[in-house]
Description:
By secondary structure, the chain is of the alpha/beta class.
Amino acid sequence: MPTHCQTSRRQFLQAMAASTAASCVYSSSESVFAETSPNERPVFATIGLRNQGRLITGKTFKFADFAAFADVDSKVLAENVEVAQKRQGKKPDAYKDYRKVLDRKEIDAVMIATPDHWHTKVAVEAMYAGKDVYCEKPLTLTIDEGKLIEKVVKETGRVFQVGTMQRTENRQRFLQAIAMVRAGRIGTVKRVTCGIDSFAASPVIPAITPPQELDWDFWLGPAPKVPYRALPEMRKGYGGGVPLYSNCHYAFRNWHEYSGGKLTDWGAHHVDIACWALGIGDSGPSKIRPVKYKLPVEYKDGYPLVDDQYNIATDYEIHADMPDGVELVIQSEGDNGILFEGTEGRFFVNRGRIVGKPIEDLADNPLPDGAIEEVYGGKVSENHSANFIEAMKTREQPISDVWSHNRMLEICHLSNISMRLGRELNWDPAKREIVGDAEANAFLSRENRKGFEINM
């Protein structure tokens, strides 16, 4: 570990106990930002700048000033520094090591858009360093990581926004859908189906020398030490400029070592909306059943037997028994979006449309005034970043809080575990553990690689 300062849990608690030391721990979000006028612009930094990092930073320039960026890919880092300098007229400092960002006392908040396996380590250390946190979804790689983040949010009092932007953006459809369910427009909900798309299997991907601009060991970080793998064919469109097949940029979602596939990618959006509509943000399923699924490589005891091909499930249909007798289905077939079915009707919603007879009936029987705002808990924010900054000012948790996100994400994590082991799982939502299955419970956590433990 480098010798520069990094606030640990022990240092945080010592500072909490000594008021004279408190100003050394808390960032300007408490010592300055929260006490200044509503027009005061907070100081931000972004950690992880490819794709989503670039996107969420771009959405935030309007509301905040960026003092620093961090990324283990020097090319990505330089490109984003140049963009930021043009957007805000000031060049942010650039670091490979995110810990140097956390040392900066003037930084109020960090936006985290690293690959999923880095989220928890960076987020926990950022909170102990006195930073508020905006972290991309899915928030965690394992269920126990979610419990740890909840503990640290409570302990430090930091504001924490999860990047499930469907809660704020595309609101004319998703918030309307939730309001429809809550208003009883489809009667008693019986079944909710989330279509989240499939993954394609990969060919064998050879081990090659990493690109010169990439610190591969640091990119792996908490994950096991493995060779960099890539084929020469390049990805086009969103996520372009990188190999189509690899175990790194963009394609990391295809590997259990770094992510949870479509289940924690699109699933983190659509399952979230489904659970929000059902009002079960503090509960969870009782059973997860893998009705059908396809793994791209052979598995034994829940682990892939090869390391040179994608190992995430490519196709699946998962059923979850939810409270009040509701069946939640997560499937890779059909339209991407959410189908709500009740005793008195059904409708479908995604980012492009909301359709069905209950929607058509709104022409003669509209929702009451304020129904959308009631779902949101107040005035709807301009975008997800704006909601985060509003919460930083009030010191309340934002629209996408860690508790409801983790409860929803547990369904997605359990679905992956059920497919890896090839059996249904019984889940205790109160204890947040798998019932009577020690082997499956072992997948609720994952040990970080030596040298990349979370600084507690």
